[in-house]
Structures are given as C-alpha cells and as structure tokens.
C-alpha cells in the first residue's frame, strides 16, 4: 500500500530520490547506522534505471588510486552483504544475489599500453588488490578454452578476486534489506518539484503527494542534472553516454569459470550471463551526439540501439577470439552511463542547504556506490569520514577547475 496518499503530506528525516544502486545502498547503510524515517522515492520501479541495464562487473583493476579504493571497498561490501544474507536466510525472501568470483582478465596488445598496465598493477598491489601480470603463454595455459590469438599479445593483467554479479538483483536485495530495517520505499513515485525556503530544502512534491523533509539526496543517476534544476542548481555536470550490450547463445568449449575477458585495445569484453554470453564494445559518440549529451537534450537519453555497433563487434571478434565466430544473438539493449567531466562521482552537500548529491558514477556505479554511501552516511551521522575526504567529491570542484585525476582503463 502506498502511504504517500494522493494530496497528503508525510514527513521524512532523509528523502532519497532514486531507487537505483546508489539509492538502495545508501538507504541500507543509513538504516544500519540507526537513521530513522528514511524514504526512497523511485519514479518507476526499483532498478529500472541504468543499474537494470548494466553488465554487473565488479573489478578492482583501475588505473588511478581513487577508482581502485572505491572498487576495492565496493567489492568488500558486497561480499559481506551476501554473506550476511546467506547467514540470515530471511523467510520468503529471494535468494542472495550471486557473485561469480572468476576474475577480470585484461588482454594487452600494444607496447605503450603494456608499459602503462605494469604501472597500474603495481599501484593496485600497493593498495592491497591481488592483481598480477601474466605472459601470453600463462594466459593460454590457464584458459585454454579461450582459444586466443596470441601473436600480437604483449601480456595480460588478472585479478582473481574480481568478478560479476546480477546488478538488478543486488539492488533489489539491498532495498529489501533496507525495508526490513524500516526504510520506506515508494515506486511509481516521481519527484516533480522540490520546495526550498531561503536556500533550505523544505519538502518534495511527488505524483503521489508531498513529503516534508529537511534532507534530500539526489541519487537519480543519469537524470541527476535535471533533478538538481528543481532546486535551482543549473550546473551539475552529469550527462548521458549510451552503451550497448548483447546477450548471445552460449559458446561450447569456453571455461565454466570464465573471467570477464577484456580486449584492452578495443574495449571488447564478455562474460557468462543467463546461460549465454554477454558482450559489449564501447563506442565513441559522434561530436553531434556529444554536444547533445552535454546539453542534456532529450535524444541523448534515447535507449534505441545504434545498429552500427554489432558490425564492429563482428569485426573485432575474429582478430582475437576465433572461438566466438558465428555468435547467435538472443537480444540486445542500450543503457546510459552517467558521466562527469573527471569521471568521478559528485558527492555531498551543495549550496542549497539539505540538498546533497550522490550521482555521476561515470559507468562504475555498481562498484563505487557502497563507498560513496559510506562517505555520505559518515557525513550525515558524524560529520566526518573515516576513509576518504568527501569534500574532494563536491560539486564545487568543477566550478573551481579542481578536477580529480582519472585514467580510463575500459
Ligand atoms: C550498459 C551498461 C553497463 C554497465 N556496467 C557496469 C558494470 O559492469 N559495473 C558497474 O559498476 N557499473 C556499470 N554500469 C554503470 C551503472 O549501471 C551506473 O553507474 C549505476 O547504475 C548508477 O547508479 P545510480 O543509482 O546512480 O543510477 P540508476 O541506476 O540509473 O538509478 C537512478 C534511479 O533514479 C530514478 N529517478 C530519476 N529521476 C527521478 C525522479 N525525478 N523521481 C524519482 N526517481 C527518479 C530512475 O528511475 C532510476 O531508477 C553500467 C551501465 C550501463 C548502461
């Protein structure tokens, strides 16, 4: 039953807008820390946004310190959450989400990238991630079923503790756990307006009624910039980037414990899913598409498949993975990354008192949301963080040109 009855007002101490992975993990962590009257408002259904279209990869192999720390902590959180769900075995609840800890394998073919990869692996190891460098012969020996073309391969990096999960199931499980701790979650409940008085948040107006609240968290993913406009913030730089995924029939002979395999030169990657093979290839948007995206024009949010990507995949496959030739496509879909200029999230307070950001994960939200939620929970409960300084992720950094360092690996 919906408690925000049409036309009525209810109150909440903290209102999270968005029932994606960020909203889910934040609601759960706030409730775990004893916060009461936490409400999640989702305009469609839980996990209907980008997280429901994601690959589900959890990798700690990143190229810069912040990304590695976020991913390392994200992985730690999910493993613990799954273990706790298994131990609790709540009656009539869905089973805990899976975690296929088969690793991530990056195949590197050019000298410069190989040089760089050695530095990234050293950095990962310094930060406690057990990644390793492999020779082409070692890759073939470990995964003979991949039937790789190795002539031009310089080597690979592999981390056995990386893996992949079902991102929508994980989001729903977190929402379920948050509900059991007292969080109220409303679906089909879009936030239409946010009322402020003298620069302070007072209430949000939804399609189902009004919620009087002093604190609003913007966890609306790729729509975060539009949500920020509801409080008069016109410069939150979160914009969409379309990505496409393809689910194909299974290929005989591939290892049962298939890592997420990434051809680093092209970005082509694949893993098992639903008894088939899920694959993707990042494609560069045209200058016109990039401009539309930055301007938040409606077509930039379009989820229609670009037919030009599949032929590119068909060209990439035989050069490295002849075993995948002749793949049979089951279905394909598009989703949106929520990009920021430095590809790090926007977290924490804004100039509008009571309006906080939790968005802009730039395609890494599954991995990075747990630590983001911890930083926000620390900020809201104690005012300071036990891990990273949340201030560095503030919106203000873009206005002052203090972008965070980032190097994209995939
Ligand atoms: C193809 C693809 C593959 C990906 N693969 C990975 C991966 O392997 N690993 C990884 O870590 N990340 C991956 N990502 C990125 C990841 O999906 C996002 O970073 C993540 O979903 C961001 O989480 P979020 O909760 O901020 O946003 P979302 O998941 O988009 O959730 C935001 C929610 O807010 C709701 N909302 C918006 N406006 C309103 C409103 N006004 N009122 C109420 N609700 C509103 C939306 O309906 C939505 O449900 C991938 C993304 C795509 C598209």
UniProtKB/TrEMBL annotation:
Q: Which GO terms describe its cellular component?
A: cytoplasm
Say which species the protein is native to: Thermogemmatispora tikiterensis
Which PANTHER family does the record cross-reference, listed alphabetically?
A: FAD-DEPENDENT OXIDOREDUCTASE DOMAIN-CONTAINING PROTEIN 1, SARCOSINE DEHYDROGENASE-RELATED
The record places domain FAD dependent oxidoreductase at 14-378
Q: What is this protein called?
A: FAD dependent oxidoreductase domain-containing protein
* UniProt-listed InterPro entries: FAD-dep_OxRdtase (IPR006076), FAD/NAD-bd_sf (IPR036188)
GO terms (molecular function) for this protein are: oxidoreductase activity
Q: Which domain of life is it from?
A: Bacteria
